[in-house]
Amino acid sequence: MGSYEEAIRLLNGRREPPKANPDEMRGSDDMLPWLRLLGYSDETLNSLNAIHVAGTKGKGSTCIFIASFLRAHGQRCGYPRKIGLYTSPHMNHIRERIRINDEPISKDLFASHFFEIWEKLPREATRTLDIPRYLQLLALLAFHVFVKEGVDVGVFETHAGGKYDATNVIKTPCVTAVTSIGMDHARLLGHDIQAIARHKAGIFKSGCPAFSVLQEPMVTAEFEKQAMKEGVLLKFVDLDETLPTDAAALKPVPQRINCSLALTVSREWLRQKAPDKELTTEDIICGIKQFSWPGRFQQITDGRCQWFLDCAHNELSLPYAATWFAEAITENQDGCTYPPRILIFSHFSDRDGQTLLNSIAKALETRQVRIQHLILTTYDIRRDGQASIDRNMMNRYKPEIQSLYAQAWRLLDPATKIWEERTIEEALDRARNISTRDGMQVFVTGSIKLVSGALSLL
């Protein structure tokens, strides 16, 4: 058996540039032939009793809430005994993507199962069968791990889309769910909200109950159209008023929405698989207490220094994250005095980063919160350039983009002091240097890679 390090090297070697349009992003096309090579039939995949979740914002949190509710029920009743959870991307190490009972699989387990499938899959593409790429390989590994480890339920988060996603190969999942939909990954999924909704609704399966949070009218209409086409009973889930109001995990409004959807999905799964049992109030409270999703609405306090981190990276998520930050820092504000307020921002993608900065500024302005210092940085973590083997981050230092971001913010607030730093480590150090005896309040957002790097240092 090869080592964990060798498994990561081989996996990273399967990365490829993003596809140019949705028709080329058919990550599910060869999944069934590859699964057949691994010895898995439709019946084997159906035995995972899967829950499949798509969406633009909050699908990872929703999956975590589902797994947490089912685990709380299992701790009390003994079923489900093993909960498999597949999410992406990872925050600190790649094994976070494949969990059993909320624990990332070990390095040994990752390596052993990886090489079990690596030896059976094609190494070169043929005219009839391609080779699995990075995300496809990870999805295959998750299916393999969950089957081999005998999970009672597999909770799967899609990567980006839905219809053509590599996770969308289970013919009869128990439940499907869709979180909030917005304009994201437009280059891959389509340049209007209906096209994106159509892709996300591609996880609907005939005879399988589907749930969605409340959506804007055009998304709702597209979901209903796709549900009717597939013969799916689709229900829209509003905020659950019975959820506890004092739970720290539910303070951000988006998390209350995600939790409401997760609770409905968990109840439906239990109705199917354990009809004589149901989630109790104690299960729900326990599930919420067990909920942990680093880098999402996360606060770290070190003396008077407060770090607020959220990996929001699109126009749908960033206003919610900025509002959460504003409400958190003004909740116990003492009169008119407060420590320096700092924004650390980094974003490099095909999204319009200037528009993202503008969405942050508008949300903060609505809450009458002003940023005194803006620190622009990159995805590179340390000054010495060293990074974990799990990260595989390219050097993304683009001073010209930082300059554009600086110019954009100056138009929004000319009084803000703006700093441009080469690495995340230097950005955090800059914030510490700005700190006064009253401390500081730092909002870190704009990219999963930024928040991941900041958390590894903090």
UniProtKB/TrEMBL annotation:
GO cellular component, one term: mitochondrion
SUPFAM superfamilies tied to this protein: MurD-like peptide ligases, catalytic domain, MurD-like peptide ligases, peptide-binding domain
EC number: 6.3.2.17
Domain of life (superkingdom): Eukaryota
Gene Ontology biological process: one-carbon metabolic process
Enzyme class: ligase
GO MF annotation: an example: ATP binding
Family: Belongs to the folylpolyglutamate synthase family.
Protein name: tetrahydrofolate synthase
